[in-house]
Every structure is written in structure tokens, then in C-alpha cells.
């Protein structure tokens, strides 16, 4: 790979600076304020004993997610969806993606009849908000599960988490595949892909979209390579943030 | 590939019976009633001279799409979104996918300041409704553009279409990659992928989701192979349906 | 009546070409795709064992209907009601009319605690959509009831249907009463009337509206004569479509 | 007609006590508080110079109406439609009926490019709210037009009103046709009809519905006779309420 | 206080003409049509045995209120909130204020598991609609409680009302504090305050807002003096309207 | 005042720990993350050149505000208002209060035809969210105005701010007036008051509510004393946070 430097000085295969402030929220059972460069997402996990009525009695739990952006998280102010009276298509789509991604690493039987709702609120947006949301949500999820174990809502030796999960964006800009696109890069990308992968390196979601020209198989392959390297790094950062496993006060 | 036969007698790499009734609707500028087996989608293209106000004066056109299901297109009746007062997340997501897929093969400059709205209404659903919608929508789009050319809304030698587009679902069932999943297969699939590709074999969208266990790189590759073979067949059927180019009456 | 020929060559007391494709939908318990000339309505009947909570324990059933138009069923595209977030007044009004018309021929005691929802979706509109909807809905209703009888949800000798029901529009154009108005006629009519009648020739609904000048008693009488002749013909076509009573696969 | 006395002592062809308080509202250009027995409807007419944008430049006016019920106008409280976030089907249907009925007696050319919105708010409901609304709305409409004439928004010698309009309900109870049904009668009626007629005795709307058994031609005729007698009486009361034509301050 | 006369001839500390028509509505358990000069509000109290599910089993009742304006209660017509599909901020705010004000004088234990909903519908608006609503709502509330006592839903010797409640607006216009502002005064007021007080002269709500320049402590004090004199007068009028305690027919 | 210590060790007239992180958001023209103890509110000010159409040409600006809570800012998760499809009454009420409070210190002529929207999003709630929102919003407002002055949208010597504004809650608990209530105190307070005051000590809003027993004039006076002392302290902290006037980077 030639040494193309990006506008913020990164090499094509560099992540932005990633920070994970575990336990940021005093109210939630689990939480993390995660930053991917200028993108900041507050992820909270709300644990409730019991499941929605239509799931009762099956011995299985439920994990769902809601994603939203603050109106001035972006460069120019957006109208609030609550004021418009409807949730937009993009919001719905990302909420569903985050929920599916988390459920892929949860053993619902082991979770038991409990519900976890993950809220991912974008406080500041600079590209990659959905991937930051998934990566931070996993940290909040772990803490909510540990909280429930302490409260005896989950059995001491149950293992509701079968793997970890993280996500990153990749894209092709001026013919070069690049990792973790900032907003200025995202709008220029010919192809944009979001990859959700587990700690073991398996795919949970692969969503590639040709924004400009359609892409070929070789380009797809190089993007997947780059993404799996990125999610491996993010997995390591998640594990670091989760040390020690028991959250401090 | 071993000779696993599917519940409807197909081999893993067989499409279902595909039919395309071009010009089904007497009202629309372009239309097609497309069937992928038991899935039937009515696609209409509505051409309007002019673009939304925020696009005026840029010399470019706009193509958008709306997808919806009739309440009893499915095995048990769903509530109407109009009655519920809001469009669901899945509907939004698919509408956006269909729109992006069509825009990927349209040269907006060549379209000029004109708008085409594609409606894809599922009359009967048996898996693969979004892929049938995209494949049928392309046929309706071609006819709407030809209609506009005859009406002189588009220049005689303009080429708004830079390629064709078709879509198909693939999935892994009991470890075997299979093409064009029917509903009973879809619910059993461990991994489900929708691939949108152009007539030249380039990718427009790749959306793979682990419904059960996460999938690895090898599985991803075999699904992509299967999907590209499927979209190539669909491309041929689209071309056949569009002969002769000038729609009869 | 003088021999005024209409724009499509019909005499004043002619119906348009009527077709009824019984069992069009593979999913519904009863269905019919009905055409009144260029008007095409897909009617499906969804049978559910049980009634809404507020009706439970009274030993009576419930029949209701929803009417809607596809956005491009009309000559120029309409916005979807699901996207606008509210059902329009005309839609509501026709849904209520269809429901009342069907309930007029159902013995709710004989139906037992079962619910039938009829969906009438206009695929193509060329005048008379509500009357086509009612006429087709009756066919779908019969099949849903027979389906339920086979499934033993309704007793073998119960007779939930006490009569049949059909509907037609009539109007006065240039002083001449005419039957079954096409769209181009409908917009020119001074008076417009929809009549719903049973197979025995009794009225279920009479809705006459002066679109231009108010009308007198003599005009009203001639419209009613014309309408009853029309519904008698439609009744015969319904009976033909329903032969044999047991639907073929 | 045999001398069947009704629960409130009326004969079958009696109206309830009708009162019309013209000019009840100090704010509106025209208004009337009308009572049909226990039914009380406040009708206001709001005159605006100009028409909606889509009608501009055609030299014609517009008249529309909105009907609504106060939540405790009825015997048990209903939820507010504003709180439910949507206007119900019945409300829509009646609003449309009131608007059509008034437009039938207005010469839109003579009205000029002006808009009149009639609001009919049911303060107390005891059957026949839509017919009281239409009858009272006409009085409010006359005053709004006279107000506009004084303000020179309408030419001195223009005649926007080509006739008057009134409405009444009729129904068959225990086989006897009855005029102007109170609520307790309405729920028992086998057939229910609302008739809107002009001062000259012509029909504007005829809406008959079989609530129980379908009805025959002879029953329809007797109901129409009764209704026309009722609207003739109401017309006389409207004229009395409108004397003198110029409203007192 | 200097003898500044107001546009309607009142002195600064005069209320407008107040009328209370108790029992105006034939349907509600309690009702009052109250006028503060040109402001007319219809207040109805709907009594229901039982409380919302989330309150069941606590032996306590619930009182809530909804405030709304008719579209032409004001000088120019407002769009209906039901048609807009959402309740506006001002409406919500006043509904909440009315509910809190009434609850302040109700002993929920003595009310028992019963619910009272107060509807305050502004028929004509000329300033002070929220204060008229609270003052009239109290009268409706008393009658609904007495109705329930007669029906034995409330024990014979229970005392659900611990005090009475009334409200009035005050404001500073051209430096002079004034009582009970009419609309033309309200728009000119530099400071606007609504005071809700009990019959014993205690405060339930004090809501003062600087519309123009912020106000000082001395101005606040003079407004409170004026308001308490006003609510004392209103309390006397409420007591008079409620004589005799048992409502006539 | 006796030395009653509060659950968190404060004396009755102590504020909680207040922090103001000016410029927290990289995107907004002005911003502050403010904490009142466990209450954290992110305030952003969005400056737009121009005003809404209905205000154009009057030479005056506009300032408005929107308040909202993240779903898990509270102890148990609330449903999102965007998902419910409507903004609740409390949210509306507080948004309106924040907007009015800020407008009280802005000279709209000096602001010129420019719009400032303040968003106050509660990230964590522990009582006093509306008072923290107002206090933080003022800081964001100052910076947005300075930003606009640098960009020449506001004249160099214009003085759009005529005073500063801050807010605090006070309440009576067990008979003792207390300043700046935390959530656990708020739910126990007999009387709850929010006071918005300017830097010069004048009132902008006084909103006192009897949550339990109504309150008397002496209690009202002691609450006002306490509140003015509190807003004076907050004013000093705002001024400190705003040093130096020109925001760093």
C-alpha cells in the first residue's frame, strides 16, 4: 500500500483516536461514552427483569437498541425527530443494525427472561457513528449483564455472551481503500462499507454500498481485509476498557 | 456442490420461476408485475418533469423509491402502516435500498431536471420481496425513461441509464449456500445476504447478515459467487422482457 | 331511453366489462381480483378465530373492511397515506361503507366468535372503485367462510350469509341517467349515486350526491331503477364466479 | 299513518324543538348555536379574503367545513381526537358531508376569490348532530357573506347563494317511518337516512343505510316523503332566524 | 392607586363581569359554562368508577384535566389540533396547570378509586381563558363529586374536597398593576401573572412572566396583592353558584 | 435558619457543585456542558443568518429553545418521544420556558435578522434539569453571539445582550426552604418553585407550585429570598466560565 496520507495525517489503515469512558452514566446498568475521533456516542444499557408479553414463558431474553442523534451533533442543526413526530428511515435502519449486531453475540437462553435496551445517542458526529455505537454498546452490554449477575437476575455461571462484537467503516477514496472514515472522507468515498465482526474474527454484518461507481470483487476483498484488521484492534480496546471486569462503583 | 434438493425441488443454485409482465399498469409511465416464485411485486415508475425545489437549477434529475406490502400479502394479516400512522423500520430500510440501487445505474445529468418515483408494492410475499422489487423496478424505470424521451422531456440521444441492475438473495442453510430463498428457507437460513449487481457484474450493494451463527470469509465468498450467477440470469430476463425496446400500447 | 352512446361505446344502461378472478391470492382465506373495465381491485378476506376483546363472550362475530389505493393506481401519482402518516377522509369513508355493506348480509350469531377482515386494494382506478370493492369483497367473504367451515371454525350447518351483496354507481350526465360510470364520466356527472343492494334486490346503502345542480325526485327514481338492474347483473356474475362453491386449490 | 307516540311524546312526523341563536359568537363573521332537541351545535363561519394557492387566479371561491364533537358532548366521555393524534373516520365523513352540502348552494364565481370555513362543534349530542350542523351552518354562512359584502370583499349585487340548504334524519323504527331521530331512537332504527335538501325542495344528498334488515323501494319512498316535509319546516325556521337580513351588531 | 380607567371602563382592581351557568351540560356528571367578560369556557366533569391500571389497589383516586380552544374562539381562525395531528405546547401546558390546580384541593384517599376528568373547552376567547377554566372547573368538580355521592361511589361522609380553588390573571400595564386582563390588555402587559389560590387564600400556583422588561420584588408584591383580592371575589361567586348544594335536575 | 443538614450534606441555602464546560461541542456556534450535581445538560446554540419567513423584513431576530431528555438520563428508562411520535406536555412546557427566559435578555433589534436555536439535552437527570438548562444555555448563547460578531453577521458595536440570565429551583421540605433541590428532595417537597432571574437581580419567571399543601405568603417570600441568592451565585459562575470572552479554539 503506497504511503497516501489522509487529511488528518493518518495512513490508510489507521483508526482514528479511540477512547472508551466506561461507566460514564451514573443511572444506567451499563454505559460507555465512546469516541472515534470527533465522533462521540453515549451508549447506555438498561436492564429489566422480564420480557415483552409476546415472549413470556419461552425461557429466553431479548436485546434491542435505539440509535439517535442530538440535533446539533452535526455541522448544521437537524430538526428533532420527536418534533417532526416520526423517526426517519436512517435512524430506524441503524437502530435495527445495532440491535442485530448485539444479539449475534448473546445466548438468549443464558440471558433468561430479561430484557436489555441499548440506547446509542450521538452527541457529536464526524463519520462512523453507527460503528462507534456498536463498539461502545458492547461495553455497556457487558456491564449490564454483570450488574444483573450481581443482582442474581442471571445465574452465577450463566454465559450470556458467546463472543464480543465491534464495528468499523471502510471505503475507497480516489482508488485507495481506507479504514474508519471521518465525515469529510465519507462524503468523498466511491464505496462505503460497514463491517460488524466478532472478537473471533467472524462476520456479523457486511454492508457495502456503491456511492459512486459500482465496485468489483477485488475491491470488495481489499475492503474486507482492512475492516477485519480494524475490528481486531477495536476488540483489544474493548477488552482493555473492560479491565477489571467488575466495574468500580 | 452436492445434489441437495430443496423443498420445492430446486437445486441450491436454481432461481425460482421468474416472470416479468411489462406494462401491467395502464396508468404509469413504466410498470412491471414481477414474480419470483410465489412473490409478486407490482412496480410502477412515475415520471414528473421537474425536481424538488432544493435540487432546482443544478441540471440534475432525481430517482427515488417507495416499497410497501399489502396487509394480506403475507401468511397472516399485518396492520396497514397507513392505519398505524407510521412507516415501519423495515419498510423504510427497503425503500432506501431500492432507491439507492436504481440511482447507481442512472446518470442524473443525462436525466436532466426530471423526477422518477418508483413504487414497489408487494401483492404476495414468499421471500425475496426486496430483490424482486429491485429487479422489476429496473424494467419500469427503462420504460418511464423511454416514455419521457418520446415526450421530449429527455433529449433524443441522452443516455440516462449507464448499466442495468438486478438483485437476488442468497443464504446458508444447513451449511449449504443456496440461491433465491423462498420464505420457508429464509426463516431457516443461518446467514442471509442480499446482493444488488449491475448487468456488467459489478456490485451496487452487498448486505450480509448472520441470523444464527456469524459467518467466515470462505462462506462469504461462496455466497457472493452464487449471487453473481443469479443476478446474471436475472439480467438476461430483464433484457428479454424489454424486447422490443418500444413498449406495445 | 334514447340511444345515446357513451365514449367507450356503451349504452346508458350497460355495465363495463366485469371480470372476477376468484382465489387470486395464495395467502388469504378468500380472495378475488375484480375488474370493472379499467378499475382493478384486489380483495382479500382474512379469517381469524376469535373477536376483539370488547366483543368476547357475546357469541357473535365481526366483519370489517379496509380500502386503500396504490399510489400509482391513478393517472397522476398520489402520496402514500402511510408516508403522510394519516388515513384520508375519503379512504376512511369508503372503508366504513364496504364494512357496513358486508355486515348487512352476515348473521353474526351464525358466524360465531370469529373475525373476518376484508382488504380492498385498488391496483388500478378508473371510476367505481368502491362499488367494485364491495362486489369483489363479497366473493372473498364467501370463500373465507367456506374455508372456516372446512376448518370447523364454523358449524357445518351454520348459515352466516343471509343474502349476497353487490354495488354499482349511477349518475346523470347531460340529463341522461347512466350506469357504472368510468372516471371520465364520473367527473362530468351532475349527480352521482352509489347503490349497494342484496341479491334479493333490497337496498343496503343509497348514497346520492349532487355534484352540480341538486336533483329532483324523478331523477332519483330513474337512478334507482338503473342501479337495481345493475346490481342484479352483478349478482349473477358473483354467483357464476362462485361455481363450484368449493374453491379449486 | 297510525298515531304511534314516541318516547318524548312526538308523533312520527314531528321535528324536535328547534332553536337557532344567530350571532352567538362575538368573534366569527357568521355564527349560530342551533338546537335540535338535546342536540346543540355551535356553527361559526370564518371568512378570509383569498383562496388556497392551488385555486388562485381562477376567479372562484371556496367553502369548506370541519365537524367535531366535544369529548363530553356524549353520554360517556370520548377521547379527544387531538390527543389521539388523528381524526376519526366518522368525523372526516361528516366534515366532508357538511362541506359538500353548503357548496351545493354557493355560486363560487359570485363568491369571488374568497374562502369560508365553517366549523360545526357539537356541544351536546342527542342524535342528528350532522343534520343540525348543516342546518345551522347555512345560517352562519349567510351572515358571513353579508359581512363580506359590507366589507366590500363581495360585490354589492353579487348573489353567491343560489338557494338555501337544510338537513334532517329519518328512520324506520318498528316498521314506522319517523322524522328527526333522537339518540335513543337512532340506536333502535332498522334503517337510518340523512337527507340534505334545498329550500326549493331539491335533493343535495341522500344517504340511506340499512342498520338492521335491508329496506325496499316502498320504505325508501316513505322516508323521502317524510324528510322533504322536515327540511321544508327547517327552511322556514332558517328564514325566520335570518330576519332581518342585516344582523344586529 | 391612581384612578386609571381601562379601555372597558374598569378600574385597575375590577374583575370583568363574571357569570357561572352551573349544570349547562345535560350529559356530564358536573358542568359549568363560565364567562369572564368575553371569555366563555364550557367546563364538564366526567366521573368514572375506577382508576387507571397503574393506580389500582392503592385506595386513591385521580383527577385530571384537558383544555382546548374551538378553532374560531379567537379573532382569527386557528387550525384544529386534531387536524394538525398534535396537541400544541400551550395547550399541554394549560391542561397540566388546570389538573394540578384541582388536585391541590382534592383528598385522593377520600375520593377513593374513582377518576374525574375535567374538560375545559374555550368557546370564546378574550384573555384569561386558563383562569376562567380553573374557576369553572371547580364548580363542575363539586357537582361531579356530589353526583357520585348520591350514586354511592363515594361514601356519604367522605370529604374529598379540602378547600375550593379559583384563579385570576394580573399584569402590569404602563406601570400600573391590573386585575383580570382582557385580550387587548394582555398583549400590552409588560408582566403577566396567573395566580391560583384556594378559598382560604393560600397559593396553589404562582406563574409570573416578564413579557417585556423583567420585574422587581415590589412589582411582584403588588401583583400578588391584587390577585388574592381577585380570587377571594371569585371564591364568593363560586359559592353562590353552588347554592343550593344539590343541583336542580 | 436552623442548621438542618441535607442528605448530601449541604445546608439549606447551598447550591450543589456547579461545573460549566464551555465549548464542549466542536460543531455548535456556542455550547456548554453544565452540571448541577448529578444533573448534566448539554446546551448548544445554533446560529443561522436570517429569520423564519413570517418575521422577515422587520429588522428583528429570533431566539428559541428545545429541551429534551435522553431515554436513560433517568433512573428507569423512558420511551423516546421520537418513537412515541409526539412531544410530551412537560417537554413542551420546559422548552417554552427556556426560550422565554433567554429572550428576556436579548434585544431582538440588536440581534438583527438572525436566528439562534438553543438545544438543551439532558444527559443525566438528578433534579433541576430546567434550571441547569437555562443557566447553561445563557453561556452557549453568549458564545454564539460572539461567533456571529466575528463573522460580521452582527455589527461590531451591537449589544444584543441586555443582561445575563440564570435559574434555580427552591422548595419547602419538612417546613424548611431549601435551595437547588436534588431529585430525592424534589419528590419530597411540599412546594416547588423555579425562579429565573437576570444578573441584575430582576425576575424573568417565577413558577411556584404546591405539590402537597398550598403555601402562604410568608413561605413564598422566603423562597424568593433563597432563589435570588442562588441565581446571584450562578451569575458569578457564568461570568467566570465566560472569561476570557473570546472562546479558545
Automatic annotation (TrEMBL), chains A, B, C, D, E, F:
Phosphorolytic 3'-5' exoribonuclease that plays an important role in tRNA 3'-end maturation. Removes nucleotide residues following the 3'-CCA terminus of tRNAs; can also add nucleotides to the ends of RNA molecules by using nucleoside diphosphates as substrates, but this may not be physiologically important. Probably plays a role in initiation of 16S rRNA degradation (leading to ribosome degradation) during starvation. Belongs to the RNase PH family. Pfam families: RNase_PH, RNase_PH_C. It catalyses: tRNA(n+1) + phosphate = tRNA(n) + a ribonucleoside 5'-diphosphate. Phosphate binds at residues 90, 128-130. Keywords: Nucleotidyltransferase, RNA-binding, rRNA processing, Transferase, tRNA processing, tRNA-binding. It comes from Cryobacterium tepidiphilum. One of its GO terms (molecular function) is 3'-5'-RNA exonuclease activity. Its EC number is 2.7.7.56. This is Ribonuclease PH. One of its GO terms (biological process) is tRNA processing. Residues 15-144, 164-229 form the Exoribonuclease phosphorolytic domain. Homohexameric ring arranged as a trimer of dimers. InterPro entries: ExoRNase_PH_dom1, ExoRNase_PH_dom2, ExoRNase_PH_dom2_sf, PNPase/RNase_PH_dom_sf, Ribosomal_Su5_D2-typ_SF, RNase_PH, RNase_PH_bac-type, RNase_PH_CS. It comes from the Bacteria.
